[in-house]
Write a structure and sequence with these properties.
Rossmann fold; alpha/beta; 5 strands; five-stranded parallel beta sheet; 140 residues; 34% helix
């Protein structure tokens, strides 16, 4: 069985009430239930933290334990050399995910310290970006 870890970074615990015009009105925990029902054999686990070091620890612990990681590092995508270095250092494939189309937003969001080390980047499809990332890990 393939095992996939979804890691969400800062403020993604506020989905459903944070900037709903950008991120939608669904809580991630509810969407996670949908993902688990659509992909019952994917062994999906979930971790969220607002703390950079905890995200790094989760990535390091995923190495060798999971088939793939889906990472939405939130604002840390654009600021954290340390998270980018961690993605480079581990062997588990990482898919960078964004709910919004970061390239249609503020210029600082166009920079990712993760993308160069990630297997791929999926952005702009709302919560469905996570489904697309799971499919890429399961079927690519």
């Amino acid at each position: 069985m393939k095992k996939i870890l979804i890691i969400n970074g800062p403020n993604l615990n506020l989905l459903g009430k944070r900037e709903t015009s950008v991120y939608g009105n669904k809580k991630f925990e509810n969407y996670l239930k949908t993902l688990k029902s659509v992909f019952p054999d994917a062994g999906i686990s979930y971790f969220q933290s607002n703390i950079e070091g905890e995200l790094i620890d989760a990535l390091q612990k995923a190495d060798g334990k999971y088939t793939g990681v889906i990472l939405n590092a939130g604002g840390y995508t654009h600021t954290s050399v340390a998270i980018g270095d961690t993605v480079k250092a581990i062997s588990v494939p990482v898919i960078e995910v964004h709910i919004s189309n970061v390239y249609s937003r503020e210029p600082y969001r166009h920079v990712s310290f993760i993308a160069a080390a990630a297997r791929g980047v999926i952005a702009g499809f709302g919560l469905d970006s996570y489904r697309l990332a799971i499919e890429s890990l399961l079927y690519a």
